[in-house]
Design goal:
- 44% of the residues lie in helices and 21% in strands.
- It has helices at 42-48, 53-71, 86-99, 104-121, 140-146, 163-173, and strands spanning 5-7, 10-12, 16-21, 26-32, 77-83, 126-131, 150-153.
- Strands 1-2-3-4-5-6-7 form a 7-stranded mixed sheet, with helices on one face.
- Helix 2 runs parallel beside helix 4.
C-alpha cells in the first residue's frame, strides 16, 4: 500500500506532496526527483519492485490526482513543480528507454506513466507547471510539464532584489 499522510493542509507521499491553499483555490504539487543509485540491470529493477523510483512516483502521482479530483473540488488551479537533479531524472529515463522493449515490468511502468498523464489531461482543472532553478523537468517529468495548460520558466535567479522581497514574492507564488 502507498504511504500517505493527509491533513487539512495537504497530502504528502514519499515522492509527491500537495499543499492546499484553500483561500486562493489552488494546490501546490511538488514531485521530488530520484535520489540514490540508478539500477544498472533489469534484475535490479525487479528487485526494487514498487520502490523503483519511476513506479513509486507514478503510483503516488496517480493516487494524488484521483484524490484531488474526487475530494477537493474547490481547488481549481494546480501548480506543479519538481525538485531534484536533472541528471538523476535522465538516468532513470535511460533505464526505462533501454529496457522497455525487452522487459514486461519496465514496459508496464512506461505505459502506466502515460496513463497517468492522460488522466491529468482530462482533469478539469487549470494546470500550471513552474520550471524553476532546481527543477528536474526532464525525461518523463518533462512530459508532466507539457501535459499542463501552461508552463512558466524562471531562468536564473533574482539578483537585484533583497531577501525580504524575494521571500514575499515566493510566498505569493506558492
Amino acid at each position: 500500500p502507498l504511504q500517505r499522510e493527509e491533513t487539512e493542509h495537504g497530502i504528502t507521499y514519499r515522492h509527491v506532496k500537495a499543499e492546499f491553499d484553500r483561500d486562493e483555490g489552488l494546490v501546490n504539487i511538488t514531485v521530488l526527483g530520484p535520489e540514490g543509485d540508478v539500477p544498472d540491470t533489469v534484475e535490479r529493477v525487479h528487485a526494487l519492485g514498487a520502490e523503483f523510483w519511476p513506479l513509486a512516483m507514478t503510483r503516488e502521482l496517480d493516487d494524488l490526482i484521483l484524490r484531488l479530483r474526487a475530494n477537493e473540488l474547490e481547488l481549481g488551479t494546480w501548480v506543479i513543480r519538481t525538485k531534484g537533479a536533472i541528471e538523476d531524472a535522465l538516468a532513470f529515463e535511460r533505464v526505462i528507454e533501454e529496457h522497455s522493449g525487452s522487459d514486461w515490468l519496465v514496459n508496464e511502468i512506461r505505459h502506466y506513466f502515460k496513463r497517468v498523464l492522460k488522466r491529468l489531461d482530462v482533469t478539469s482543472r487549470t494546470l500550471i507547471a513552474l520550471i524553476e532553478p532546481g527543477s528536474c523537468f526532464a525525461g518523463a517529468l518533462l512530459e508532466l510539464a507539457l501535459a499542463c495548460d501552461r508552463q512558466y520558466m524562471l531562468e536564473g535567479t533574482f539578483e537585484d532584489l533583497d531577501e525580504d522581497l524575494l521571500s514575499d514574492l515566493a510566498g505569493r507564488v506558492e
